[in-house]
Design a protein that fits this description.
410 residues, alpha+beta, Lipocalin, eight-stranded antiparallel β-barrel, globular
Length: 410
C-alpha cells in the first residue's frame, strides 16, 4: 500500500513538472503590445525568469522593474494577475508568442484590451531606429490638449544614443517611468504598469520644438500635445492648489479600516502627534509611488511621534470590493499604518464631499499635514515619484524637513 502511495505521488509530481514544462513561457526579454481602439499599439518590455518550478516576470519601464509573480498556465492558456490595480492578462500561447486580452476590472465593468507579445524581443519601438540628428535631453514646456481643454505640463527627458527616458510632470503627479526612442525626426515614448498604459508620439521640428504630438491612454483615451524647450519651465506650487475653507483649522472624519473598525482623527493614538493623511486609491499609480515612500517614512518617524493615515477612495462604494483591492496594496508594500475605506468613490466631487473642510480635492494623491495640536498646516497635491529623478529626492528632503520642524514644536 505504501509503495502504491509513493508511486502515485511520484507520478503526480512528474505530471506536474511535465505540465509546467509544456506551458512555461520562454525565459528572457519579451516585447508586449496593448492594442487601443484606434488601432495603435502601446508597447512595453517584460522579462521572464524561472524560479524553481515557478515563473516570474518583471515589467520594464526605464529603471523600474515591476515584479509580477501570479502566473498560472493550463494547456496553452496563460493567466497573469497583476499585483495591483485589479487587472489581469488572459492569454493563449502559440510557440514563442502570446495573444489575448489585458483586462482592467473597474467598479462597475470590465475593460478589455487586445494584447500580443513575442519572446526574445528586447526592442520597444524599432529593432533598428532611423538615424537622427536630434537630442531631446532637457526640460520642455509641454501643452496637453487642444483649445477646448489644455493642461500645462513639464517634460523632462534624457537621451543616450537614440534611447530616451523621462516623464511629464503635472500639477497632480507625473506620468511615471516613460521609455522610448528617437527615430529620425520622430519621438516615441510609452509606459505600462498594470494600471495605466501610455503612448506618446510626436515630430521633432527642430532642436527646440516638438510638434504634432499624439497621446494615447488605455483603450480609448487620446489627445494631442506640443512642447518647446524651456529650462525654466515650472508648475504651480503643489502646496497652493488645495486649502481649508475659511473658518476651519482642523479636519474631522470617521471611516472604517479594512477590518470594519471605525477610526477617527480624535482617537487617542493621534493625540499630540504629527499626522499625515494620505488621500489615495488602489487604482492610482502615483498613489502607489507615494505609498512606497510613506511605508519607509513611517518606519523612520513613527517612534518619534508621527502617525500616517490612508484614506482610500475606490472605483466603487462596495466595501468588500474595496477591502479586497486595498488588502493587496497593504500586502504588496507591507503597509503598517491604518488604511481606511471611506465609502466614497474616486470622483473628485465625491472626495471633496467626504472632507467638507477642504475647498477642493484637485488630484490623487493629496497629502494633508497636521501638527501636534491637530491643526492642518499644509496640503500637498500630487506626488513626484521616483520616475521624476531629482524632483523625487527634493520632495523627500523638503517633506522630512517639514516633519522635523513640526516635531520640534511644543
Amino acid at each position: 500500500m505504501i509503495k502504491k502511495i509513493i508511486f502515485s505521488a511520484l507520478v503526480l509530481t512528474a505530471l506536474t513538472h511535465i505540465s509546467w514544462a509544456q506551458t512555461k513561457l520562454k525565459a528572457g526579454v519579451w516585447r508586449g503590445a496593448l492594442h487601443t481602439a484606434s488601432a495603435n499599439q502601446i508597447p512595453f518590455n517584460f522579462e521572464v525568469t524561472n524560479t524553481g518550478n515557478k515563473q516570474e516576470l518583471a515589467i520594464i519601464n526605464s529603471s523600474e522593474h515591476f515584479k509580477v509573480t501570479d502566473i498560472t498556465a493550463k494547456g496553452d492558456s496563460v493567466f497573469i494577475k497583476m499585483p495591483l490595480f485589479e487587472s489581469e492578462f488572459r492569454l493563449k500561447q502559440e510557440g514563442d508568442n502570446l495573444k489575448g486580452q489585458f483586462i482592467k476590472h473597474l467598479g462597475d465593468r470590465d475593460v478589455p484590451m487586445g494584447f500580443t507579445a513575442t519572446a526574445g524581443t528586447p526592442w520597444r519601438f524599432f529593432e533598428a531606429p532611423a538615424k537622427t540628428a536630434y537630442n531631446v535631453s532637457g526640460r520642455w514646456l509641454a501643452i496637453m490638449g487642444d483649445s477646448t481643454g489644455r493642461d500645462t505640463t513639464v517634460g523632462e527627458f534624457k537621451q543616450a544614443g537614440q534611447k530616451v527616458t523621462g516623464t511629464f510632470l503635472t500639477t497632480t503627479g507625473d506620468y511615471r517611468f516613460l521609455e522610448g526612442t528617437v527615430s529620425g525626426d520622430s519621438l516615441y515614448l510609452s509606459c505600462f504598469d498594470g494600471g495605466h498604459a501610455y503612448l506618446f508620439s510626436a515630430k521633432i521640428a527642430d532642436d527646440n520644438t516638438i510638434t504634432g504630438g499624439k497621446f494615447f491612454s488605455g483603450l480609448t483615451g487620446k489627445d494631442v500635445w506640443v512642447a518647446t524647450r524651456n529650462q525654466n519651465a515650472k508648475l504651480p506650487d503643489a502646496y497652493s492648489l488645495s486649502a481649508l475653507k475659511p473658518g476651519y483649522k482642523k479636519l474631522a472624519f470617521t471611516f472604517k479600516d479594512l477590518n470594519g473598525k471605525a477610526v477617527s482623527l480624535t482617537d487617542a493614538r493621534f493625540n499630540n502627534k504629527v499626522v499625515i493623511v494620505q488621500v489615495m486609491g488602489s487604482w492610482c499609480p502615483n498613489c502607489m509611488d507615494e505609498t512606497a515612500y510613506m511605508v519607509n517614512y513611517y518606519k523612520k518617524y513613527q517612534s518619534r511621534g508621527v502617525e500616517v493615515l490612508g484614506l482610500a477612495y475606490e472605483r466603487t462604494t462596495d466595501f468588500t470590493k474595496s477591502q479586497k483591492a486595498l488588502a493587496q496594496v497593504k500586502a504588496r508594500f507591507d503597509v503598517k499604518y491604518p488604511v481606511l475605506i471611506t465609502g466614497y468613490t474616486s470622483n473628485k466631487a465625491e472626495t471633496a464631499k467626504s472632507l467638507p473642510a477642504l475647498t477642493s480635492v484637485v488630484g490623487f494623491p493629496t497629502t494633508i499635514i497636521i501638527d501636534k495640536k491637530g491643526d492642518v498646516r499644509k496640503i500637498h497635491t500630487g506626488f513626484n515619484g521616483p520616475g521624476t529623478g531629482e524632483h523625487y529626492t527634493e520632495f523627500i528632503s523638503e517633506f522630512e524637513k517639514l516633519t522635523e520642524d513640526l516635531l520640534a514644536e511644543k
